[in-house]
């Protein structure tokens, strides 16, 4: 299956996540079937979201996040897929559809909860422009 110009190899019944940076959208698939979609905010031009194919390596119901100029306690429904990059709920803004993050993929908290229940450690995350 081709997604964002990249070949995505998944089993017919395998859940996976597609992140379209150009459209600021996340799509949840099972095999080739689209099961849900969400408007998101990804990294800015100064702190871009990585592109490529990754797998979720850890999930946290709540976790603290910190970096240069920010400290965010109890970030909900966090799923890391590459180094400090993750998909997570966002309580500090409601400006979805506009790049706002330090590289992570910000979702509305209720959307992040759905995605958290949908995905497992090992779920493919495909990120493209």
How would you explain this protein's 3D organization?
This protein is mainly beta and 129 residues long. The chain has a single domain, classed as L,D-transpeptidase catalytic domain-like. It has one helix and eleven strands. The strands form three sheets. The chain has a five-stranded mixed sheet with strand order 5-4-3-11-6, with helices on one face. Strands 7-8-9-10 form a four-stranded mixed sheet, covered by helices on one side. A two-stranded antiparallel sheet has the order 1-2. Strand 7 and strand 8 form a beta hairpin. The protein starts with a strand and ends with a strand. One of its GO terms (cellular component) is extracellular region. It comes from Bellilinea caldifistulae. Keywords: Cell shape, Cell wall biogenesis/degradation, Peptidoglycan synthesis, Transferase. Pathway: Cell wall biogenesis; peptidoglycan biosynthesis.
In short:
This protein has a five-stranded mixed sheet with strand order 5-4-3-11-6, with helices on one face. The protein has a four-stranded mixed sheet with strand order 7-8-9-10, covered by helices on one side.
Fraction of helical residues: under 10%
| CATH-derived architecture | Beta Barrel
Strand content bin: over 45%
CATH topology: L,D-transpeptidase catalytic domain-like
How much is the average pLDDT?
Answer: 96
| Total individual domains | 1
Tally of separate helices: 1
Number of strands: 11
Span of the ends, CA to CA: 17 Å
By CATH's scheme, which homologous superfamily applies? L,D-transpeptidase catalytic domain-like
The CATH class label is Mainly Beta
State Rg: 13 Å
Strand order of the largest sheet: 5-4-3-11-6
The helix/strand order is EEEEEEEEEEHE
The low-confidence parts are none
Keywords: Cell shape, Cell wall biogenesis/degradation, Peptidoglycan synthesis, Transferase
Pfam family, one: YkuD
GO molecular function, one term: transferase activity
Pathway: Cell wall biogenesis; peptidoglycan biosynthesis
């Amino acid at each position: 299956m081709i997604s964002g110009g990249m070949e995505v190899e998944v089993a017919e019944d395998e859940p996976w996540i597609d992140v379209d940076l150009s459209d600021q959208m996340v799509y949840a698939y099972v095999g080739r079937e689209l099961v849900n979609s969400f408007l998101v905010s990804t990294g800015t031009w100064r702190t871009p979201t990585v592109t490529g194919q990754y797998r979720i390596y850890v999930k946290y119901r709540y976790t603290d996040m910190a970096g240069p100029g920010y400290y965010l306690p109890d970030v909900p429904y966090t799923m890391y897929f590459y180094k400090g990059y993750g998909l997570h709920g966002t309580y500090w803004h409601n400006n979805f559809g506009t790049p706002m993050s330090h590289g992570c993929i910000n979702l509305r908290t209720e959307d992040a909860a759905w995605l958290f229940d949908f995905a497992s450690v090992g779920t493919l995350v495909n990120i493209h422009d």
